[in-house]
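Handout, section 3.2

Students often ask what a structure token actually looks like in practice. Rather than define it abstractly, here is a full record for RNA polymerase I-specific transcription initiation factor RRN3-like. The first block is the sequence as you would receive it.
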Amino acid sequence: LRAGTPVVGLPGYSGAVGPAAPSSGAPGLMDRDFLNTPPKKTVRFGGTVSNTLAKLQKGDTSDYELIKHQLSDPDIKKLPWLGRSQAVVEEYLAFLSNLVSAQTVYLRACLRMVVSNFAPKRIRIQEGNVDISDSDDEDENLPRTFDQCHQALQLIARYVPSTSRFLMSILSDKFPFVQKSSRTLECYVHNLLRVSVYIPDLRRDILELIISKMLTLDVSAPRSEIEEVESGAQQDANGASQDDCLFDMDEEEDSPLDSSRPDRAVMVHPVAERLDTMMTVLLAYIEDICHVNGSLDIEKTKALYRDLLSVFDKVVLPTHASCHVQYYMFYLCSFRLGLAEAFLDHLWKMLQAPNQPPVLRQAAAGYMGSFMARAKFLPVSTVKACLDLLVPWLHLYINSQDSGSKAFCDVNLHGPFYTACQAVFYTLIFRHNAILEGNMKKGLAYLQGLNLERIVMCQLNPLRVCLPAVTNMFAAITRKYQLVFCYTIIERNNRNLLPVVSCSTGGSSVSTNTNPLDTFFPFDPYLLKSSGKLIEPIYQAWEDLVSSENIQYHFDIVPQGSMEEEDDFLHGDSVAGMTPGSYDSHLHSPRSVGSPPVSFLQRPF
């Protein structure tokens, strides 16, 4: 409270003073709308603070001690300032500024108060002791409320320069549980990203917090599960009621039909829907930060790229089998070729760095291959430049191992080498047409110059550990253009493939490990509908490549025991309709990925 401000009632107080008496003084800056809001019980201390301080200077401490006593009562509630008139909000913000600048001991409490309003409140209606309604607050003034929260936070940061030191832990602690509704997560993430705009020192930490939470959702929703739920909902759309949808028992989960956003494509899978919402907000933030008046701002884009790459190295790259979160780098790199080349160069340096853990080197190779295969915005010249780095490195590795004591097939010894081989094979499956088109003779000369036969035939035997789908497609393509004849090696590997016997309470089972590298392709088809509209135009789908391709398969290479697992890859006489992707996926690109993204808060950052 400031000098000159009337000491108005504190709503919710239930002390012995009793109900408020009518005010005999002027209302000061408090407008009539606020004064007419009926609190349950209020207290008044008498005149203005300035009068009380004037009495204190003259030795009359009675009013001053009364104020101190009443304000020290822990049962007094906070002033419900949000959503009030502009005069009330301005007065409260002035009080907040004075409080944190004069008494920094209250800084954390004030920050927690502001951040706690970054998500809509829950409205619970009860009859007796039974909840009959529990949903997000549908207040139409929510954007205005958020604006007032950010205004308060900016004022605090202006008066207390050390705010950023204390704010990050509060933002993390207040982050909603990932099982909360999509709308709650959307609002909170949007508000965190707004904070990063006016407190830029926190941007990297805020991005790391958001992306870490998104990864938690991503790894808990496997690709196969999302595809199963979405395809099942599509099949049942004409006959089944939305009330019978799967997962509708959780009170925090969103209904597949969101009446507040009728033009938004909604995922039926609840975890995928939350992730889709958060991805939409994050991609919109990246777009807004990098573009000013519709034009790419190079310096701002570079700065954001550095922050997002740091987060990628720290939390995304070490995460195995994430399906969607890594696409924020894919989307950012599409803005400018230099970003894509810098990303590939970063991955290349990590792959060849012997001081990096093998698991990260393998992940880097997987990202390189998947990015080169799927990035439609990547020209063939950049792809060839990357192959000109990868393939010579493979030959040098073979030179160092072929005559040594470790020149045999072992994933634990040569993991980065095998993953790099698979990245090369995978890239050529997707990009061989682009390399050959225009000048077939020149393209074939380039492919022959890679000396792929030496890699395939070496003692380390990379075809034995690569994914069967990749191996078979690579073999078919290289046979068509007479680059390498892989089938002799593949048949020998299949004969030497030992089954693995596993025992459990249900008995013993015999299986063959067809994915010894534990491979996944990070840029396999994007399944999220709303945010997917931003990815679709820049993504190379497999179906677009095979429309005119006619590559015959050599079916005798498939061993008896693995035919059931490989049906999705080897059904038919050509590669059309098959996608070389992660082993546990259905390996097809979605042909329809929903409507354009419409976020709840379509506000520029």
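Discussion prompt for tutorial groups: Residues 188 and 285 are 13 Å apart (CA to CA). How would you have guessed this from the sequence alone?
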